[in-house]
Amino acid sequence: MGISIICIIVFHYVEDCGIYHVHKNGWVEFFRNYITSSSVDGFLFLSGFGLYYAMKKHPDISQFYKRRFTKILIPYFLVSIPALCWNDLFFEKTGIKAFFSDIFFYSFFTRGMAWFWYILLICFCYLIFPFIFRVLDKAPDEESEQMRLINLFTFFTMIAIVVQLSNKGFFSNINLALLRIPFFCLGCFIGKYSYEKRPISYGTYGLMLLSLFAIQFRKGSKIIFARYSAAFLNISACILIAILFGKLKRFEKLHNCIKKFFEWFGKYSLELYLTHVTVRGIMRDYGYHTCYGRYELIMVAISIVLALILNRLTNLITKIRIPAIHHAK
Predict the structure, then answer these.
(1) How far apart are CA 102 and CA 84, in angstroms?
(2) Phi/psi of residue 179, nearest 5 degrees
């Protein structure tokens, strides 16, 4: 998660270089052409992976929904209400109707307003997770598991194709969320393998190598193939990093140092996403484009400070809310 949020921040820097025509070669060009925003797929993959463990340990669905939506919606509203209030009522002056349209994601579907689109996507994934979990967990054997995963992939891909063919404008607004749902399912699938301590098969290594081959054809490809190939590369990288960290354990001090660094970013990944997106949007509106190094560093520093504050506020509200519920009962 820590590596993924860092890559997302880097992607937004690379994206801004393209938007404002700041040409940079080397790693920036490589990132733009091959990595892009696929770290979001890594986020979803790891979320599905972790949720499988969570559901096995605490199978109460009502408690699952309560914990997950509390964890994500409290920080979302703490950030989005002032951010979108400023944007819609004071900066763009689009009015109160636009504010409610933005905060409840209606504008994401109608005009592709994508400041906090990931929150909508992960909430949808939380909603469908108990079904995905049941489908994969109740498979009688390994072959059935794999077929069920293929069926889930096919189902969500066919929905994307139908939407694209029937309404290209609507597909253009929502494809960055719609095309990522299969990789949440894949995370649940790999979570099951991990939970049951199954070894990594040669077939998995073969798919990882295939993802390296497929990424060569990403540039200029149709959007579904482009997103899927980048996602498979990122998820292969997730698995490879897990393997490397396992090997690194023999060098205990180095392992712990690297682990603590990335764990810190992973711990605050949601808060960093929310504050980073907000600060980036505001700086961009005022002409402080984060494709320039000095503004990027300022943006990252402010985002980290705000993420820490947001985490404290979320914890405080959660602690206040829980005793109040118990008292009411």
Answers:
(1) 7
(2) -80, 0
DSSP 216: G
Residue pair 36/221 in contact by the 8 Å Cβ criterion = no
Q: Indicate the Cα dihedral angle 188, 192, 193, 195, nearest 10°.
A: 130
Positive or negative CA dihedral for 40, 45, 49, 55? positive
- Dig out the tokens for 257 from the structure: 């140092």
The residue with tokens 């002409």 is 287
Q: Is the pTM of this model over 0.70?
A: yes
3 state DSSP class of 6: helix
With beta carbons less than 8 A apart as the criterion, state whether 61 and 127 touch: no
* Cβ neighbours, 10 Å, residue 278: 22
Q: What are φ and ψ of residue 26, in 5° steps?
A: 70, -135
Compute the distance between CA of residue 176 and CA of residue 117 in angstroms, rounded to an integer. 9
Q: 204: burial class by Cβ within 10 Å (0-12, 13-18, 19+)?
A: middle
Q: What is the DSSP string of 9-50?
A: HHHHHHHHHHHTT----THHHHIIIIITTTHHHHHHHHHHHH
Per residue in 197-235, pLDDT tens? 988 777 777 777 777 777 766 666 688 888 888 888 888
Which tokens in the block code for residue 322? 């829980």
d(CA 23, CA 151): 42
Q: Virtual CA dihedral for 245, 198, 139, 148, nearest 10 degrees?
A: 50
Between CA 285 and CA 283 the distance in angstroms is 5
Which pLDDT tens digit goes with each residue over 74-114? 999 999 999 999 988 888 888 899 999 999 999 999 988 88
Longest distance between any two alpha carbons in the chain, whole Å: 61
Report d(CA 153, CA 168) in Å as an integer: 21
CA-CA distance, 266 to 43, in Å (whole number)?
Answer: 10
* Alpha-carbon span 152 to 158, nearest angstrom: 10
From CA 98, how far away is CA 105, in angstroms rounded?
Answer: 10
